[in-house]
């Protein structure tokens, strides 16, 4: 038995799935990107990203995307009865490891000084929207 959780405080998923599912005292988050809550799936809505009429990058700020994806994860955790401190595993998907890993690692260290969940970082070819990062997280939920 599991509970499906969705919140209007995070960006709407790009498919038919919830933001998270709670099973026992574990919380599994679906992939979370940096889009802002209320943005559409097909408009950018990505902090630090500006596209031209052909969908090409006019402006790109990876740091803004990292901060935004962390804020989205926090919102989903809180809506699910969990918290940042309860994260136990984080899988990171980057579309450009060479360009973005060191920046991500630096910002990650700012957010995870106390809680240090397990982490895996992978480079992938693309994501379903024009984002450069997505996180897949597992947390605990206190009863």
Level-1 CATH class name: Alpha Beta
Quantity of strands, as a count: 8
Mean pLDDT: 92
Please identify which CATH superfamily we are dealing with. RutC-like
Biggest β-sheet description: 6 strands, mixed
Strand order of the largest sheet: 1-2-3-8-6-7
User: What do we call the CATH topology?
Assistant: 60s Ribosomal Protein L30, Chain: A
Helical proportion?
10-25%
Q: How many structural units, i.e. domains?
A: 1
Count of DSSP-assigned helices: 2
* Low-confidence spans: none
The percent range for strand residues is 25-35%
CATH architecture level-2 label:
2-Layer Sandwich
Anisotropy-based shape: globular
- As a whole number of angstroms, the C-alpha radius of gyration is 15 Å
Order of helices and strands: EEEEEHEHEE
The assigned structural class equals alpha+beta
Distance between the termini: 16 Å
Written overview of the protein:
With 143 residues, the chain is α+β, with helices and mostly antiparallel strands. It has a single domain, classed as RutC-like (60s Ribosomal Protein L30, Chain: A, 2-Layer Sandwich). 23% of the residues lie in helices and 28% in strands. It has two helices and eight strands; from the N terminus they run E-E-E-E-E-H-E-H-E-E. A six-stranded mixed sheet has the order 1-2-3-8-6-7. Strands 4-5 form a two-stranded antiparallel ribbon. Helix 1 packs across helix 2. The mean pLDDT is 92.
